[in-house]
Write a structure and sequence with these properties.
The protein has about 70 residues and is α+β, with helices and mostly antiparallel strands. It is about 30% helix and about 25% strand. The protein has a three-stranded antiparallel β-sheet, with no helix packed on it.
């Protein structure tokens, strides 16, 4: 009985941890890495209304994270 309870608690805590990590960490949608000295010529566009990509450089790579603005209902 104790082992079943321990397994159940471990499963619940794992699910909570996955949800917390998913909400707090933004995973980039696109990663572009180049070994050349010049940056690659790349254009990234969103198909969502009000969507855009935020660019962040990490070492020789450029990470693009998809964001979206709220759509006004005027």
């Amino acid at each position: 009985m104790r082992i079943a309870l321990a397994v159940l608690v471990a499963i619940i805590l794992s699910c909570v941890a996955v949800i917390v990590v998913r909400v707090t960490i933004e995973v980039p949608s696109v990663a572009v890495c180049s070994r050349a000295r010049s940056a690659p010529d790349i254009e990234v566009s969103s198909t969502r209304i009000g969507g855009y990509f935020e660019q962040r450089r990490v070492g020789p790579c450029v990470l693009y994270t998809h964001k979206s603005r709220g759509v006004s209902t005027d």
